Amino acid sequence: MKADFGIRCAGAEPLLYELSKPGRSAAILPALDVPEAELPPAAMLRDQDEVNLPEVSELDLARHYVRLSQLNWAVDIGFYPLGSCTMKYNPKVNEAASRLPGFAATHPYQDPHTVQGNLMLMYELQEMLKEIGGFAGVTLQPSAGAHGELTGVLIMRAFHCDRGETQRTKVIVPDSAHGTNPATTAMSGLEVVEVASDARGNVDLAALKALCDGTVCGLMLTNPNTLGLFDERVIEITEMIHGCGGLVYGDGANLNAIMGIAKPGEMGFDVMHFNLHKTFSTPHGGGGPGAGPVGVCDKLAPFLPGPIVALCSCEETGCGCGCDEGEEEEGVAYHLVMPEKSIGRVKAFYGNFGVLVRAYTYIRMLGAAGLRQASEMAVLNANYLKSRVAKILPISHDRTHMHEFVAKGIIPGAPDVRALDIAKRLIDYGFHPPTNYFPLIVPEALMIEPTETESKETLDAFADALQAIYDEALADPEILHQAPHSAPVRRLDEVRAARQPILRYRS
Amino acid sequence: MNYIPHTDADRAAMLAAIGVERVEDLFHDVPAACRFPTLELPEPVSEMEIMAELQAMSEENLDVGHYTSFLGAGAYHHYVPRVVDHLISRAEFFTAYTPYQPEISQGTLQSIFEYQSMICALTGMEVTNASHYDGATATAEAVIMALNSVKGKRNKVLVSPTLHPEYRAVVRTYTQGMGLEIAGDESATAGLPELAARLDGNTACLIVQSPNFWGQIEDLDGLAERVHQAGAMLVVVVADPISLGLLRPPGDYGADIVAGEGQALGNGLNYGGPYLGFFACREKDVRKMAGRLVGQTVDADGKRGFVLTLATREQHIRREKASSNICTNQALCALATSIHMAALGKSGLRRLAELCYHKAHYAAEQIARIDGYQVLGGKPFFHEFAVRCPAPVQAINDYMLEEWGLIGGYDLGQDYPEMENQMLLCVTEVVSQPEIDALVVALGEAVEEVGQ
User: Fold this and answer.
1) Mean pLDDT, residues A129-151
2) Which 8-state DSSP code applies to residue B247?
3) Which of A160, B257, B325, B385 has the fewest Cβ atoms within 10 angstroms?
4) CA distances, B109 to each of A314, B116, B120, B297, B305 (Å)
C-alpha cells in the first residue's frame, strides 16, 4: 500500500494572491440601514485601496482551500503515530456539541445568570478532571500544554514566595523532558537544573538526591516519561522532593497511558496540566487550538489563575448578582470567582471554551470504565507494536512500555541510513512518520505512539512497512535518502528557508 | 463507547505476541498502592443521550442569536460567512497536527504563509508569526520580546490605562518572576502625552491600544519617535482587526510590535475562546520573536514549498534559552481568520468596517439625545463608545434584558472605579437599525423604571 497524493493534486496550488484579480470579491454584506456618519480625520484613515488583501470569488476560495487541504496528512486519512502527541481519533459528535448555538453564540461578558449552561459545563469538567487526576482544584483557563506548564510553574513559585521562601529558585528537569519544561522555567524567572536518567530510563535517584536542598522550587516530571516508561520509583522521587520542601510538577502530556490506572495526585504530584487535545480527543487543528487545564493539590488551590467556576450562593461571593434566585437547587448558582491568592489571569476570559465542550462530551460518553479501557488499549497497542518493531529496529529500553516507545533508526547493514530517511520513506508507504530525534537522549530516535483507536490491522501494516523499508535500506539505500517520492513535494530546503527568510508574499 | 476497534480475538493475539496473560500485567511498574483507583465519574451515556443533554444545557444560556447584544470589550459579534466554517471543518485541516513533516503538511503550511501575508498587509508590518493563544497572551509576549530586544538591561514597562484590563492583568501574570516595574495605568485619566512623559532610560516598551478599550481611536502621530528617542519599543494593540479596514495601520505610525486579538475575523464568540492572538514586528527583530513561523523555500526539484522556519528561537531547540515556551499556534482559528479576510478582500473589509462605524455612530447620536445619558469622549471612535448612565449599569442591563430581551453594554466601573455608572456599548454590522432604536427606547425607559 502506498499513499498517492499525485492523483489528487497534479500541480502545486497557487497562493491566494496569485489567484487574485482586482475588483473580484466574495463579500456579501448587508446594506447600510442608518445614515452615514462623518468619518474620522483623513490622517487617521488608510487609503481606500491600501489593504493588500487578495480579491477572489467564493468559488476561488472554496477550491483553493479544498486543494490545500488535500496536501495535508491527517488522522482521518491514516495512521499518525506521532510520539508524545496522542493523535487519537477525534469523534465527530464533539463537533456537533461545540457548535450548538446556545454554547457557541454566547459572549464572555454576559451576566452569569444568562450563561448558567456554560458555567455548569465548565464546573462539571473541573470536577471530572479533579477526579481523573486526583487533585483538589482545577483551572480551565490555559490554552495549551505549554500554557498550562507556565501556569503550574508560576503557581509553585507563588506558593514559595507566599511563605517567604524566595530562595527557592531551582527547578529540576530530567534530561528526557520536553523542551517546554526548561523554557517554561526560564520564562518564570527560575533556574533550570538538569537531572540525568539512569540505565533503566528512570530518574537517576542518586543524582536527584544530590540536587535536593533548600533552594529547590520543584521538579518537573513527565510520568510515563518521553521514553514511554513509567518511573518505577515515582513515589520515592516525589517523597524526596517533598522532603526538601519542593513541589512536584507533572507534565500531563502522557496522561493517555494512565487514566483510571493511577491518579497523579495520589503519587505525590502537586500540580499537573492536562492536554485536552491529546488525552480527551479534541482535534489538533493543524497545531491548535488545544486546552491545557491545570490541576493542583489542596495547598496550591488558592494560587490558581482565575476566574474559575464555583457553585455557591450570591451571598458567598458577595456579587449581589441575584443569579441564585429561582434555581432548582435553591440558593446556589454557578459563579466565576477569583481564588484568594491567585497568580492572576493567564489569558483573557476563561479558557478555550469550545475545546472544553468537546472534552466534556468525550468524558461523559466514556465514563470511568471507558477511560480506563482507552488507556489500557493505548498501552496494549504500544506494546504490541513494539513487539513487532523490536524484530526490525533496536528499542531504547527492554522494559514494558506504556502508551509509546522509542526505537532507534539504526540499521547495521546500512550505515548511511538515518532515522530521518526511515521517517520520510514511511510517507511513501502511507504512514505519518513517528516523532524523530526526540527524546534527545536516544540516538536516531523514532518515537512511536499508536493510541488506542488504531486497529491491529493498522499496526501490522505499519510494522510490515517498516520491514519493507529495512529491506530496501540494505538493497538500495538511495530510495530512502531520496524519500518521500509520492508526497506533493520532495524534501524541502530548510537551510535556505532560514538563511534567506521569505515570510510573506511580495508581488 | 470509547472508539476502540479491538475484538476479543485481537486482544488475545496481541497479548500473546507481547508475552503477557492479561492487560493488567502491562501495569506492574505502577506502584501497587496507587494502581487501578476508582474514578467517581457520571455513568457513560450514548451519543444520542449526550446530545440531548448538551442541547438542554446549551439552552440554559441566552445566546446572541436570540437576544440582540451590545457587548464588545474584546470579544466581537460579527457575522462569519458560512464558507469559513465549511472549509476549516475539512478533516485534512481539522485532524492534522503541527506541520512537523512539511512534505505532507503543505496545506497547513501554505495557509499559514497566506495568513502571515494578510496580517502583514492589515497591520502594515513586515513579519507576522503563525499566531498566539489570544490577544492578551500576544501582548504579554510582546513585552517579553521588547525586554529581549532593547539595548542593555531595562526593566520598566509603560502600559496605557486604556489597554484592555484583562490584557494588563495577563502581562502582569506572565512577567511576575521577572522583577519588572509595570507602570502607567494607575489612573484611568492618564492620556498618551502623560504616558510618554514617563519614558526613561530604563523603559523597554510602551503599550497602547487603538481603538482603545473604550472604543476611541488614539492619536498615535509622533508617539513612535518619542518612544524610540528613549531607546524603547512601541507596542500597539488592536482588539478588533476589522477596524484596520478603515483606520491607518499601526505600522504606518512606526510601531515596532503589533499584537492583537484576531477573533473578530472568522471566529465566533464561543464564550471567550478559542480565539487567536496575532503578532507582527519588523524584519530586523524577527529572531527575537516568539512563536511558530512559516517560510517559503524550494524542494529537491526546485519546486516552491513551505516549512516551519527560524526554529532556533524555539523551545524544542533552545530549551531554556528559547524566546518563549510556546510550542503551538492557534492554527485552525488562524485559518478561519485567513478565509474570512480573503472572502472580504480589499473592498469588502473596508465596507464591513464602515458598516460598523456608521451603525455605532448612529447609536451614539440617538443615545446622546436621551435625557440623563451622555456619550463620553470627544475623540473619534470606531464601533464602541462609553455612555454615562443615570443609574447603575447592572440595574439598567437587568431591566433591558427582562423587558426588552436586549443584552446591554459592559460595565466600565468594574475596572475603573472613577467610571462608575459608565457603560461601554458596541455596535457591529449584525445589529439592525430597528434593534438600535429599541435599545434607545429601552435605555430611556430604564431611567424611569430603575430610578436615577
Assistant:
1) 97
2) B
3) A160
4) 49, 11, 17, 11, 9
Domain with CATH 3.90.1150.10 in chain A: 369-496
Q: Are B96 and A71 in contact (CB under 8 A)?
A: no
Residue B271 contacts A where some CB pair is shorter than 8 Å: yes
Distance from CA of B26 to the nearest CA of A (A): 6
ipTM above 0.90, yes or no: yes
Q: What is the DSSP letter of A403?
A: S
CB contact under 8 A, A288 and B333: yes
Place of cell 534567506: A500
C-beta atoms surrounding A233 within 10 Å: 17
Residue A342 burial (CB < 10 Å; 0-12/13-18/19+)? buried
Task: Give how far A245 is from chain B: nearest CA, Å.
Answer: 20
CB contact under 8 A, A286 and B332: yes
Cβ separation of B100 and A384 shorter than 8 Å? no
User: What domains can be seen in chain B, in order of their start residue?
Assistant: 13-50 (no CATH), 68-79+347-450 (3.90.1150.10), 82-340 (3.40.640.10)
Q: Do A76 and B316 touch (CB under 8 A)?
A: no
Q: Which of A9, A65, A191, A363 to mutate to test the interface with B (most CBs of B within 10 A)?
A: A65
Q: How many whole angstroms separate alpha carbon A181 and alpha carbon A221?
A: 9
Q: Does the N-terminal peptide bond of residue B99 adopt cis geometry, omega within 30 degrees of 0?
A: no
Does the structural domain A369-496 have CATH classification 3.90.960.10?
no
pLDDT tens-place values along chain B, 452 residues long: 579 999 999 999 999 999 999 999 999 999 999 999 999 999 999 999 999 999 999 999 999 999 999 999 999 999 999 999 999 999 999 999 999 999 999 999 999 999 999 999 999 999 999 999 999 999 999 999 999 999 999 999 999 999 999 999 999 999 999 999 999 999 998 899 999 999 999 999 999 999 999 999 999 999 999 999 999 999 999 999 999 999 999 999 999 999 999 999 999 999 999 999 999 999 999 999 999 999 999 999 999 999 999 988 777 777 788 878 888 899 999 999 999 999 999 999 999 999 999 999 999 999 999 999 999 978 899 999 999 999 999 999 999 999 999 999 999 999 999 999 999 999 999 999 999 999 999 999 999 888 65
HSE on the CB side for B153, CA within 13 Å? 3
Distance, in angstroms, between A411 CA and closest chain B CA?
22
CB contact under 8 A, B37 and A367: no
The rounded percent of chain A whose pLDDT value lies above 70 is: 95
Residue B287 sits at the chain A interface (C-beta within 8 Å): no
Quickly count: other Cβ atoms within 10 Å of residue B438's Cβ.
Answer: 17
Q: What is the pLDDT of residues A42-97, one digit of tens each?
A: 999 998 767 899 999 999 999 999 999 999 999 999 999 999 999 999 999 999 99
Of B314, B349, B359, the CB nearest to A51: B349
B62–A424 CB contact, under 8 Å: no
For the record, the C-alpha cell of A121 comes out as 459545563
B18 interaction partners in chain A (CB closer than 8 Å): 380, 383-384, 387
Give the separation between CA B431 and CA B68, rounded to whole angstroms.
7
pTM: 0.97
State the DSSP code for A402: S
Q: Which three cell numbers stand for residue A363?
A: 468524558
What pLDDT is recorded for position A8?
47
A38: closest CA of chain B, how far (Å) = 8
Per the CB < 8 Å rule, is B1 touching A365? Answer: yes
Q: Do B273 and A351 touch (CB under 8 A)?
A: yes
CB contact under 8 A, B60 and A234: no
> CB of B167 within 8 Å of any CB in chain A?
yes
Of B315, B319, B250, B261, nearest to B140 by C-alpha is B261
- Alpha-carbon Rg of chain B, whole angstroms? 25
